[in-house]
C-alpha cells in the first residue's frame, strides 16, 4: 500500500458499515485521495491503534474522542463531523403511571440506563441529572450493559431501556433522542404508557480524530474529499443517508465540554 494512502479506522457495529466505507473509499479514490479502512470490534482497540500510529484517522464516538484527547494531552486534532453529530440530545422517558412529574420525583424510583460506555444513554443523562440537582444516591439505577466496547453505537442497550420501562421493570429510562424518535415513528412505543419527561442540554457526537503529526497532505486530501460529498449527487446521497447525515461539517470542540466534565467526575 502506498505511503500516500490514508488509512482510516471505524468500528463495525453493524453490517452496513462495510457498505458505507467501501462506498466512501470509492469516492475518496476517485477524488484523488487514496484511502483504505480497517474495521475494529471495539473503540478501545481503535483508539490504541490510532495512538500507536497504526492508522491515520479514527472515526470516533464522543467518548473515544475525549479519551484520545486525554491520552495525547489535547494534542490530537479533529478533522470533521456530521451535521447530525451537532446538538445531539438524550431523553428521560417515564411511565405515565409512575407518579414522576418532575426530575426530583425520580428519587425513590427505578431509572433504567444503557451501557456503561454509552454517552447518550448513560454517561451524560446521569451527569445532567446530577447537574439538575437529582440525588442519584436515592435513585435505583438499573444498568443494561449491552454491547460494551461499541459505545452505544448499536442502540441495543437503549432498546433494553425502553423495554424495561414498557414492562414495568423500571419507572423511567434514559435514551438518545434518535432512538426515541425512531422507535416512536416505527410504532414500537406505546405513547399511552410512556412519554418523554425531559430533554437534556445538547452535546456533540461522533468525530474524526488524528494525531498532531499526521502528514499535512493527507489531512488536506481527506478533508477535501470528505467535504466534497454533496447531497445533490445521487451516489453521494446514498452513502450520506446510510451514515445518517446531509452534510459533513468542520469539527468543533464546545459540544464535548459536558462529556469532559462527566468523565472527570464519573458516576459509579
Count of DSSP H/I helices: 9
Structural class given helices, strands, pairing?
alpha/beta
Radius of gyration: 19 Å
Helix content estimate: 25-40%
Specify the biggest β-sheet: 6 strands, mixed
CATH superfamily of the largest domain, by name, is: Periplasmic binding protein-like II
Overall geometry: globular
Mean pLDDT: 97
CATH architecture of the largest domain: 3-Layer(aba) Sandwich
Q: Output the CATH topology of the largest domain.
A: D-Maltodextrin-Binding Protein, domain 2
Number of domains: 2
Distance between the termini: 45 Å
What's this model, at a glance?
This protein has helices at about 15-30, 45-50, 60-70, 120-130, 155-165, 175-185, 215-225, 235-245, 255-265, and strands spanning about 5-10, 35-40, 55-60, 75-80, 90-95, 110-115, 140-145, 170-175, 195-200, 205-210, 250. The chain is α/β, with parallel strands linked by helices and about 270 residues long. Strand 6 (about 110-115), helix 4 (about 120-130) and strand 7 (about 140-145) form a beta-alpha-beta unit.
Question: Explain this structure to me?
Answer:
By secondary structure, this protein is of the alpha/beta class. The protein has 9 helices and 11 strands. The protein has 2 domains: 6-85 and 204-264, 3-Layer(aba) Sandwich (D-Maltodextrin-Binding Protein, domain 2); 90-199, D-Maltodextrin-Binding Protein, domain 2, CATH 3.40.190.10. The strands form 2 sheets. It has a 6-stranded mixed β-sheet, with helices on both faces. Strands 7-6-8-5-9 form a 5-stranded mixed β-sheet. It is globular, with a radius of gyration of 19 Å. The mean pLDDT is 97.
